[in-house]
């Protein structure tokens, strides 16, 4: 019960210092409960009613996965004010430091280097507050997961035929940096890496890329019910328009996989 209570307190957007975090100042400071009530009392009420008392308790997606989805969305959208709170919550719910490190690295490729760099100070301070050192982080290089040579050859051939004449650099980096390196790093399980990617795509409205990556996520173990819960979760953290823009694409992927 103590663990559950701490988790719920950490989750609430407007609660006190339940998670260790570096002080923030000025426009970038996380709002205090009294500040929120002074400006938007309904916002505080909605957070308690729908996020704390409902969303994070839904059984369709574990609290660990919800932590991954939320952190991915915040980094993808470069929303760093709440990031320390949710990094701490993710750690509390079972996400490992090396997985958070790998999520940030992964999102450098999928949401841009500046967004990943903007996440570094928040993660650094949360890690420092919990005495998380280099020994708990993934190495820069090392053994990789096995590559599905057949699937990768098919992907590379398809992309090369489509775009090789227009942007050979993009095609080459996609092969060398992403699918023959980043996606083979073992510090983030393929299913979780796919979950991070799909969450970032939904959160940033990149619906054109969802079909491929959701199929890959489901091949890697994400279930149909979990995919649906990701959408419902991200409606709160990325907005209803982004969730509903992605909904037809996700529906189409799920229905085609049933056939």
Description:
- With about 260 residues, the protein is an all-alpha fold.
- The chain contains 13 helices and no strands.
- It has helices spanning about 1-10, 35-40, 40-50, 65-75, 85-90, 95-110, 115-130, 150-165, 170-180, 190-205, 210-220, 225-240, 240-259.
- Helix 4 crosses helix 10, helix 6 packs across helix 10 (about 190-205) and helix 11 (about 210-220) crosses helix 13.
- Mean pLDDT is about 90; it is low at about 1-10 and about 15-25.
Shape: globular
SSE order, one letter for each helix or strand: HHHHHHHHHHHHH
How many strand units? 0
How many whole angstroms does the radius of gyration measure?
19 Å
Low-confidence stretches: 1-11, 13-27
Termini gap: 44 Å
**Structure class:** mainly alpha
Number of helices: 13
List the helices and strands and how they pair.
Blueprint: H1 2-11, H2 33-39, H3 41-52, H4 63-76, H5 83-92, H6 97-111, H7 113-129, H8 149-163, H9 168-179, H10 190-203, H11 210-219, H12 224-238, H13 240-258
In short:
The protein is mostly helical. The protein has helices at 2-11, 33-39, 41-52, 63-76, 83-92, 97-111, 113-129, 149-163, 168-179, 190-203, 210-219, 224-238, 240-258. It is 66% helix and 0% strand.
């Amino acid at each position: 019960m103590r663990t559950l209570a701490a988790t719920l307190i950490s989750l609430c957007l407007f609660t006190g210092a339940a998670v260790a975090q570096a002080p923030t100042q000025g426009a970038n400071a996380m709002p205090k409960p009294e500040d929120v009530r002074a400006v938007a009392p309904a916002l505080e009420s909605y957070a308690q009613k729908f996020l704390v008392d409902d969303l994070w308790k839904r059984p369709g997606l574990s609290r660990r996965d919800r932590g991954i989805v939320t952190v991915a969305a915040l980094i993808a959208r470069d929303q760093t004010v709440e990031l320390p709170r949710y990094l701490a919550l993710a750690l509390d719910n079972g996400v490992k430091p090396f997985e958070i490190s790998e999520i940030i690295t992964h999102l450098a490729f999928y949401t841009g280097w500046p967004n990943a760099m903007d996440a570094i100070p928040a993660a650094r301070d949360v890690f420092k507050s919990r005495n998380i050192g280099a020994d708990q982080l993934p190495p820069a290089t090392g053994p990789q997961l096995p590559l599905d040579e057949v699937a990768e050859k098919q992907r590379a051939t398809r992309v090369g035929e489509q775009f090789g004449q227009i942007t050979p650099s993009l095609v080459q980096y996609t092969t060398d940096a992403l699918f023959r390196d980043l996606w083979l790093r073992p510090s983030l399980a393929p299913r979780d890496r796919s979950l991070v990617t799909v969450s970032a795509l939904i959160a940033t409205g990149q619906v054109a890329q969802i079909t491929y990556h959701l199929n890959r996520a489901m091949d890697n173990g994400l279930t149909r019910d979990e995919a649906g819960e990701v959408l419902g979760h991200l409606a709160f953290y990325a907005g209803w328009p982004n969730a509903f823009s992605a909904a037809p694409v996700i529906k189409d992927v799920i229905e085609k996989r049933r056939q």
